[in-house]
């Protein structure tokens, strides 16, 4: 508890201590000038540096637009790598040039003097408004906008062309293949053998032990000449063997068994935004998506137990053939990948 005598400048506390009831306004501290404020050569050097950063940003945008058309991803890992590197570097230079250049200009060249404006009624007098307008004009002059035309022009140009680095790739997809129905079908069909990714070696059930995790593709995928990457993107599967006693669910809604002796196969494509799900925790039987931490329970139909995903990973119905090789009973019965507008999410 404390007591304050309105006629006193001191607040007295129960423990006998006292603190001032009010403090005097200390005012503004002494302004410290920067090198650019007192040395024209330093200011000129900073101007050139900021101009170079804005120019680099403009060049970065041009590189992104050029690379989008001149270096398409193609069908090979090498062409994809080259396209992604050039696009990424161009976008990085574009953004860093604007960010660092703008920051540098504000911190070093723009006025950093402190100004005090007393509080007043919301509606200022006409005379006060005239003073405010004049202060804005003085501030613009003090900032150097009116004097450093080349710098301002480069900055404005960098900001103006930057959206092209995002809009061109987006608009470039206009007229592209938006047939989301293709996600409803993959290469898997009745009798297709499960093969190792990337070697394409068929897998026998006897080769898979409890706790194993196999990255799987349809047998014959590597023989495709065209559309191999598109088909693989849809058909990749994660094969896991559990103790059959740990399986809570391994059946279709119609009661058909979709696993073989504890071996289950699920789409590797997260149902949130399509990242590869491949982090398996054997003790809990949980699968984790590394992008946004969606977590699926392998022992219970890969239902979502955590994260933003809205539906389980589609299960690939599997069995074995006469030679003991793992084969698909059919294609996925649910579309793979993220939920889209043509179907429910649950």
UniProtKB/TrEMBL annotation:
InterPro entries: QcrA_N (IPR045603), Rieske_2Fe-2S (IPR017941), Rieske_2Fe-2S_sf (IPR036922), Rieske_Fe-S_prot (IPR014349). The chain crosses the membrane at residues 50-71, 83-106, 150-172. CDD domains: Rieske (cd03467). Residues 1-16, 27-39 have a biased composition (Basic and acidic residues). Residues 1-39 are annotated as: Disordered. Residues 234-327 form the Rieske domain. It is a multi-pass membrane protein. It is found in: Cell membrane. Keywords: 2Fe-2S, Cell membrane, Disulfide bond, Electron transport, Iron, Iron-sulfur, Membrane, Metal-binding, Oxidoreductase, Respiratory chain, Transmembrane, Transmembrane helix, Transport. Coiled coil: none annotated. Iron-sulfur subunit of the cytochrome bc1 complex, an essential component of the respiratory electron transport chain required for ATP synthesis. The bc1 complex catalyzes the oxidation of menaquinol and the reduction of cytochrome c in the respiratory chain. The bc1 complex operates through a Q-cycle mechanism that couples electron transfer to generation of the proton gradient that drives ATP synthesis. Belongs to the Rieske iron-sulfur protein family. This is Cytochrome bc1 complex Rieske iron-sulfur subunit. It comes from Cellulomonas fulva. The lineage of its organism: Bacteria, Bacillati, Actinomycetota, Actinomycetes, Micrococcales.
